[in-house]
Amino acid sequence: TYVYAVNRWSVTGARDTERLVFCASHLEDAASFLDPDVAEKLVTTSAMNARDWHGVANVLNQDQVVAAYNGCLDRLEHDYESFKGDIQRENTDRVSLMIKTLEYHRERQLARYGETLAKHRMNRRLNIIPAVEGKMQRVRQSIDERVLSLRQKQQISSSEGRVSAGVIRLA
């Protein structure tokens, strides 16, 4: 007999992530947890193929069930904190790389427009210079806005919620 809990983790940053996570422990040994992949397989297979267990409250020791369930919740909470830390590090790296790429792109475009400006000045085509300067300003503004948007995504926001819990008896 197993007690299980399923939670949903959602994280928003440079990339949105949502994950269902599973925890299951044997009722007789609440401190021992199944591997999360095995727990997922147990829960999903049971959901598709099992029958309801009427009268389970009269058969099982409710204190044992609560202890096993609380153990699963503690385990999921611990794993959630670790998951958030991993995602925050990945997110920081991803945003930093994206910002560096944008800044490199801006500098290359501005250098190209700068060369064009110099050619127009040298050839005394002064009437074209304001258009090129306008393009340079739009490049700066566009990339600055994108960088600002990315900086706002540097800190992740996250949430977790309970999805399902129960008892599974294997026959």
Throw out a few tags for this protein:
alpha+beta; 60% helix; rod-shaped
Describe the protein.
This protein is of the alpha+beta class and 171 residues long. It is 60% helix and 22% strand. It has 4 helices and 4 strands, in the order E-E-E-H-H-H-H-E. It has a 4-stranded antiparallel β-sheet with strand order 3-2-1-4, sandwiched between helices. Helix 3 runs antiparallel to helix 4 (129-152). The protein is rod-shaped, with a radius of gyration of 28 Å. It starts with a strand and ends with a strand. The mean pLDDT is 93.
Topology:
Layout: E1 2-12, E2 17-26, E3 29-33, H1 36-49, H2 56-59, H3 62-122, H4 129-152, E4 157-168
Antiparallel strand pairs: 1-2, 1-4, 2-3
Q: Largest beta sheet, briefly? A: 4 strands, antiparallel
- How far apart the termini lie comes to 9 Å
Number of DSSP strand runs:
4
Question: Quick check: average pLDDT?
Answer: 93
- The number of helical runs is 4
Shape: rod-shaped
- The percentage helix is 55-70%
Radius of gyration: 28 Å
Strand order of the largest sheet: 3-2-1-4
- Tell me the structural class: alpha+beta
Return the string of H and E elements.
EEEHHHHE
Content of β-strand: 15-25%
Regions with little confidence, pLDDT below 50 for 5+ residues:
none
